[in-house]
């Protein structure tokens, strides 16, 4: 056995002169990155869906509050979003429509364009001449297609 190999100088030279990684080291790193991305990707996609649904719920709530204010000043609810004078932010993921508006209640629906999103309905009721109540209904997507927005219960 050579005395050159038993000294720490051999170890130092081998570390300094070694350039690059072995194939096993590269494979281990690639496998670790693949496992981490497989865990993180579904979670990230789920958060994007929740953000789109939160935007729709925010729009429903804004229209419900605006309908309450409109009903205080007028004898009926309005069927036109422009009459509510709110900064309504339309999104490409949902179709929005006021489906019912009379003196007793108003119904505002958010119907999704994509199958993985929930459908929402905002209901605003007039209980007395100046008192109003609201609620938000939601429907989960069905296994065979896009979720259908529920109807408000009759007052």
Key attributes of the depicted protein:
single chain; 155 residues; four-stranded antiparallel sheet; 3 helices
Report on the structure:
This protein has one domain. The relative contact order is 0.12. The protein is an alpha+beta fold and 155 residues long. The model has no long low-confidence stretch (mean pLDDT 86). Strands 1-2-3-4 form a 4-stranded antiparallel sheet, covered by helices on one side. The radius of gyration is 30 Å and the shape is rod-shaped.
Blueprint (SSEs and pairs):
Elements: H1 3-6, H2 8-17, H3 23-73, E1 94-101, E2 105-112, E3 119-126, E4 132-139
Antiparallel strand pairs: 1-2, 2-3, 3-4
Summarize it:
With 155 residues, the chain is α+β, with helices and mostly antiparallel strands. The protein contains three helices and four strands. The protein has one domain (23-139).
Mean pLDDT: 86
Number of helices: 3
Model regions low in confidence, pLDDT < 50 over at least 5 residues: none
Q: Order of strands side by side in the largest beta sheet?
A: 1-2-3-4
Structural class: alpha+beta
Rg of Cα set: 30 Å
Give the total of domains: 1
Strand content: 15-25%
Largest sheet: 4 strands, antiparallel
Name the shape in a single word. Answer: rod-shaped
- Give the N-terminus to C-terminus distance in angstroms: 97 Å
**How are helices and strands ordered from N to C?**
HHHEEEE
Helix content: 40-55%
Query: Could you give the count of β-strands?
Result: 4
């Amino acid at each position: 056995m050579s005395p050159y190999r038993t000294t720490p100088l051999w170890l130092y030279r081998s570390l300094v002169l070694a350039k690059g990684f072995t194939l096993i080291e590269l494979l281990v790193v690639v496998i670790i990155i693949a496992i981490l991305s497989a865990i993180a990707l579904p979670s990230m996609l789920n958060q994007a869906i929740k953000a789109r649904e939160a935007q729709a719920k925010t729009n429903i709530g804004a229209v419900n509050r605006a309908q309450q204010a409109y009903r205080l000043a007028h004898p009926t609810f309005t069927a036109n979003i422009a009459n509510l004078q709110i900064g309504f932010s339309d999104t490409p993921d949902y179709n929005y429509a006021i489906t019912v508006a009379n003196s007793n209640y108003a119904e505002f629906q958010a119907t999704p364009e994509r199958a993985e999103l929930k459908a929402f309905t905002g209901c605003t009721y007039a209980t007395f001449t100046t008192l109003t109540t609201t609620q938000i209904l939601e429907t989960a997507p069905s296994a065979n297609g896009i979720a259908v927005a529920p109807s408000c219960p009759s007052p």
